[in-house]
Write a structure and sequence with these properties.
Number of strands: 8
Mean pLDDT: 88
CATH class of the largest domain: Alpha Beta
CATH topology of the largest domain: Beta-Lactamase
Radius of gyration: 21 Å
Structural class: alpha+beta
Distance between the termini: 40 Å
Order of helices and strands: HHHHEEHHEEEHHHEEEH
Low-confidence stretches: 1-9
Oligomer: single chain
Shape: globular
Largest sheet: 6 strands, antiparallel
Length: 257
């Protein structure tokens, strides 16, 4: 069998790229029109109109007012995604319990396309709201969820992610040097949990534990709170124990499901 060239492995279908760009733009704009889409995306109105007609025929978008919005079929697809994640109900139960126990934000994330993607989020009574939401993505190198996952991924996958990620500085405390990041990941594997000490958002501290299976990691569970409430002792003590305990429950349910 002939070898596939790098150009072939990188080949994409332009029309599909445009369609997904259209969908993403509709997602972030209320009742956007054909003209507005064409202006924002830099395509002709006829090109945009053809894509909109196709997406509407597939019932992915609907007309709304003078423009378009995503259809409820997208919500149905999102529900199917949740069902495809192993032990989603157990994850929800543990994240909710963690939020109630700590009164802070609790979240579960997994690695997709070399970023941490949020699967579920729950807010405790005193939680400080953050921009993260189910389906959203954040960098792996600056978040406790991302670092907990990175630390326990197979070495080749971890190396691939680091080599192909720009370690963008999110705050003055973000680790932006690959060697320093690897040293931090080594510490995480030794103690079993990761921290984000104002590395992604100033004023917030997070702790996360990986959910492992066999020789890989399925995801991670975390708690996030303001620096005014999350002291060093609390972060490395009660909170670290809490996320590790929750992670262990999910692991056991995954193993015996």
């Amino acid at each position: 069998m002939a070898n596939t060239s790098n150009d072939e492995t990188r080949r994409t279908i332009r029309s599909v790229e445009i369609a997904f760009t259209v969908l993403n733009t509709i997602r972030t704009n209320d009742e956007i029109t054909v003209t507005e889409l064409a202006d924002e995306l830099g395509h002709s109105k006829s090109t945009i109109h053809s894509h909109l007609r196709t997406l509407e025929n597939q019932e992915i978008i609907v007309r709304s007012g003078n423009g378009y919005r995503l259809s409820l079929q997208v919500l149905d697809m999102a529900n199917d995604v949740r069902e495809q994640v192993a032990n989603y109900d157990v994850i929800v139960e543990e994240v909710d319990e963690l939020a109630d126990e700590t009164n802070e934000i609790a979240q579960f994330g997994l690695e997709e396309h070399m970023k941490v993607s949020y699967l579920y989020k729950s807010r405790g009574n005193r939680a400080v709201e953050t921009a993260s939401r189910a389906g959203g993505k954040q960098p792996m190198h600056s978040t406790s969820l991302g670092k907990a996952i990175l630390a326990f991924l197979p070495p080749d996958r971890r190396e691939t992610i680091i080599d192909n990620t720009t370690l963008t500085r999110q705050t003055p405390k973000t680790i932006t040097d690959p060697d320093s990041l690897c040293e931090d990941l080594d510490r995480i594997t030794e103690r079993g949990y990761a921290i984000d000490d104002e590395e992604n958002i100033e004023g917030l501290r997070c702790v996360a534990a990986p959910v492992r299976s066999e020789n890989t990691v399925l995801g991670a569970i975390s708690v996030t709170g303001p620096v005014s409430r999350i002291s060093d002792d609390y972060l490395h003590g009660v909170l670290a124990e809490s996320v590790q305990r929750a992670a262990n429950v999910i692991e056991l349910n995954t193993k015996f499901s």
